[in-house]
Design brief:
Helix content: 40-55%
Structural class: alpha+beta
Oligomer: single chain
CATH topology of one domain: Alpha-D-Glucose-1,6-Bisphosphate, Chain A, domain 4
CATH class of one domain: Alpha Beta
Distance between the termini: 155 Å
Length: 222
């Protein structure tokens, strides 16, 4: 490693993923203001990012938490992507905003925090290491997005199924209504015919009534 320079610097590092940019910036942590790598994790809340980080880093050692500083750390671990010989301490914080997370990482080798001015190759390795982490987060975010969209599709398919069932029921109701109307029309014709028959009976009966009335009037006149 090169000698440490007291230089405050923000460097945009080249990453292989468009999911989250990685920035380098001096930030306050448990050991004062130190150089950090800042990773943007859009679409991921802090709880999710923390869970994925613990899973991602577990092969390198046990992750501890400084509850007072809300800081995760892992001590004296070798990360081959950064350096295959020297052990480092990794400090991490997660800051959530608008359902996005900004993650901060400090890499300490001996009493020195890595920075791009003095530790170009190590920072490039850290960049690649964190890019792999951000890809894991992005995969989880996209998986959850896919699951949400699949659920949305299932809900739409259920809505369509309900509409199709409603259509079938409406067709059935319409057919029942048509059958009811047809039967009612048949009954109307039948009713009209019966009215004619009844009117004919009434006409005949009226003639009979007239005859009997005449007969009554003629009683005693012969």
């Amino acid at each position: 490693m090169k000698q440490l320079y007291a230089t405050s610097l923000i460097v945009l590092l080249t990453t292989i993923t468009s999911f989250g940019q990685i920035m380098e910036k001096d930030l306050r942590m448990s050991e004062g203001v130190q150089n950090a790598l800042v990773v943007e994790l859009p679409g991921a809340d802090a709880k999710k990012a923390e869970k994925i980080w613990k899973s991602f880093i577990k092969e390198f050692g046990k992750v501890e938490k400084d509850k007072k500083m809300k800081e995760f750390f892992i001590e004296q671990t070798i990360v081959p992507a950064i350096d295959q010989e020297y052990a480092i301490d990794i400090f991490t914080k997660f800051d959530e905003y608008d359902n996005n997370t900004r993650a901060y990482f400090w890499f300490k080798m001996d009493d020195h925090f890595l920075n791009s001015i003095d530790d170009e190759s190590e920072i490039e390795g850290a960049d690649a290491f964190l890019t792999d982490f951000s890809i894991e987060v992005e995969k989880q975010v996209v998986k959850e997005e896919l699951k949400s969209e699949e659920n949305g599709l299932k809900n739409l398919q259920k809505d369509l199924s309900k509409l199709e069932k409603e259509e079938s029921n409406l067709h059935r109701d319409i057919q029942k209504a048509k059958d009811t109307i047809r039967k009612a029309e048949e009954k109307l014709i039948e009713n009209a015919n019966k009215q004619k028959e009844k009117m004919a009976e009434i006409g005949n009966q009226e003639e009979v009534v007239k005859m009997v009335s005449t007969k009554l009037n003629n009683v005693g006149k012969n």
